[in-house]
Design brief:
It is found in: Cytoplasm. One of its GO terms (cellular component) is cytoplasm. This is LRC14 protein. Keywords: Cytoplasm, Leucine-rich repeat, Repeat. InterPro entries: LRRC14/PRAME (IPR050694). The chain has 68 residues and is α+β, with helices and mostly antiparallel strands. It has a domain of 42 residues. It is 35% helix and 9% strand. The chain is built from three helices and two strands, in the order H-E-H-E-H. The chain has a two-stranded parallel ribbon. Strand 1, helix 2 and strand 2 form a beta-alpha-beta unit. The protein is globular. The relative contact order is 0.25.
Amino acid sequence: VRRLAPGADAGLQRLAVQLAALPALKELNFGSSRLSGNLGQLLGDLQTPLESLELAFCYLLPGDLAFL
């Protein structure tokens, strides 16, 4: 598991806020991203369901899979 750098949590929160502000968002590609344990934080406030979510080469934790 690759750990996020110190201060990255604030960046993830800013990204989550920006994603939630996109009402027409339909597709996301987080391929090769360091998301372990953070999917719920990033995607939990989306206003509409995604049609496509790519998570290739992402190490997901059980909590991420439970969120999905």
